[in-house]
Amino acid sequence: MLKIKKLTSRSSSKGIIDNIDLVCPTGKIHAIIGNKDAGKSTLLDIIGSRTCADSGVVYIDGETIKSLGEQYRSFVGFLFLSEAICCRLTSDEYLDMLGAMYGVSDRIRKAKVEYLVESLNLPNEGYVDSFSYDDQKKLKLAATLVHSPRYLVLYEPLDGVSTATKRVMSDVLRDLAMNGTTILYTTSHIDCLDEVADLVSIIDAGKIIYKSYYMELKKIIAKDCIQDTSSLVHTFNGI
Hints:
The chain is of the alpha/beta class and about 240 residues long. It has a single domain, classed as P-loop containing nucleotide triphosphate hydrolases (Rossmann fold, 3-Layer(aba) Sandwich). It contains eight helices and ten strands. The protein has a six-stranded mixed sheet, sandwiched between helices. The chain has a four-stranded antiparallel sheet with strand order 2-1-4-5. A hairpin with a 2-residue loop joins strand 9 (about 200-205) and strand 10. Helix 3 packs across helix 4 (about 105-120). It is globular.
């Protein structure tokens, strides 16, 4: 289980977060949706120890990330806000390199890379720096998976991709969750929730303003004809 308790940061250039409580149960997918500068990237940066919170605690399997030190990176896969991947390697060469850096054995690494390239329908020809936007997004997701982490913490993995690519990536995420992987991801788009999220938290100005199971939220979205994230945030502000 991933648990966040009273997390606050008012010093990040990426947006504040204010007294956030959040739980992502084992084997579930928890989406955090909000507009730009709502605090999503700050939250993920703190979970990934890229920046420090002013107060509050992040727990993984009942242990604080501070007490776990660097070892928790061996069982968590991170995808942060980042630029395109630029290197003169093919997709399998790139993933193999990352797997080696994580210390994955040759035999397991070979099988894992083959699985990721096939399941995410990655190009097996051409260098990754020439990949399309969609293929870069799939490759970034694959890069979080080479060491078979038990947890995934992902910044907007599905945002901006085509419907076909979203379906491929969503299928991989759902399959991972069904096999026990715990996933926390952010998004700025309502259509990145459907058929992926089990639970949803709405964030605005650094505060969680609503959280529920996605199926409950989906009923409200349909009933109120909510079509975008700004309207979604407006609906729950002040409740």
